[in-house]
Amino acid sequence: MLNMNDTIPEKLAEVKQRIAKSALDSRRQNDEVTLVAVSKTYGVPEIESALNAGQRVFGENRVQEAQGKFPDLKVAWPDLSLHLIGPLQTNKTKEAVALFDVIQTLDRPKLAHSLAREMQRADRRPDCFVQVNTGEEEQKAGIAPADLKDFLALARDELALPVVGLMCIPPVEENPALHFAFLSELARRSDLAQLSMGMSADYEQAVRLGATHVRVGSAIFGKRPVLATG
Ligand SMILES: *Cc1c(COP(=O)(O)O)cnc(C)c1O
After folding, report:
1. Do residues 115 and 128 make contact, with C-beta atoms less than 8 angstroms apart?
2. In this structure, which residue's CA is closest to atom 13 in ligand 1?
3. Is the model's pTM score more than 0.85?
4. Ligand 1, from 85, 196, 197: best to mutate by most atoms within 8 Å of Cβ?
5. What is the pLDDT of residues 136-166, one digit of tens each?
């Protein structure tokens, strides 16, 4: 039987090559871009296949799913770095701070307060990205662009959270490049150096527009089962 995991190293290599080319095209250094391999819905064998091919940074969108897969992997691969890229409920803050190395979805004052308390209690400080709702979509998570300044005053200045950058998920029906350029401008104005933007369909564009982190799932691991959105 054909083992689908066999194709993961090849696809990973291709994504890395495309990132390198996009970086070069825009006169950036290849090592300015971190590939976050989004492993949500995939199992430990697929993740191990990527680890064996040299990948060390992974993204998961659900705390509980990540808790089922990553504790043992983190012991086996101490330099593995795990990013939370999905919404975080405040009743999961403790688990998230314990497991994740980066939280990309800081998106509201209540969560900022909860993370600040838990980081102090646990004495563990994962880097945070503020998620910005660049498309101002009603149903989507993220700080509205107009509220970003006040939110950073709370999260970064008052609560002293380790905020390192901004993250966005553009509306599906719009040209992502406009959102990437906008996020980049917001980060520049906010004096933040890191930008998490770009997924399988548009990561090359994101790199050309300044992404420091691209979140790529299906282009590495293959198509996800339909139930796995979010
Ligand atoms: C699932 C997901 C991705 C990866 O999506 P692909 O299209 O499979 O690359 C990136 N970012 C977030 C926030 C996601 O939930």
Report:
1. yes
2. 85
3. yes
4. 85
5. 999 999 999 999 999 999 999 999 999 999 9
Ligand 1, residues at Cβ distance < 6 Å = 38, 40, 61, 85-86, 169, 199-201, 215-219
Token pair 């800081």: residue: 106
**What is the 3-state secondary structure of the chain?**
CCCHHHHHHHHHHHHHHHHHHHHHHCCCCHHHCEEEEECCCCCHHHHHHHHHCCCCEEEECCHHHHHHHHHHHHHHCCCCEEEECCCCCHHHHHHHHHHCCEEEEECCHHHHHHHHHHHHHHCCCCEEEEEECCCCCCCCCCECHHHHHHHHHHHHHHCCCCEEEEECCCCCCCCHHHHHHHHHHHHHHCCCCEEECCCCCCHHHHHHCCCCEEEECHHHHCCCCCCCCC
Q: What is the number of the ligand 1 atom nearest to the C-alpha of 38?
A: 4
Q: Tens digits of per-residue pLDDT, 72-131?
A: 999 999 999 999 999 999 999 999 999 999 999 999 999 999 999 999 999 999 999 999
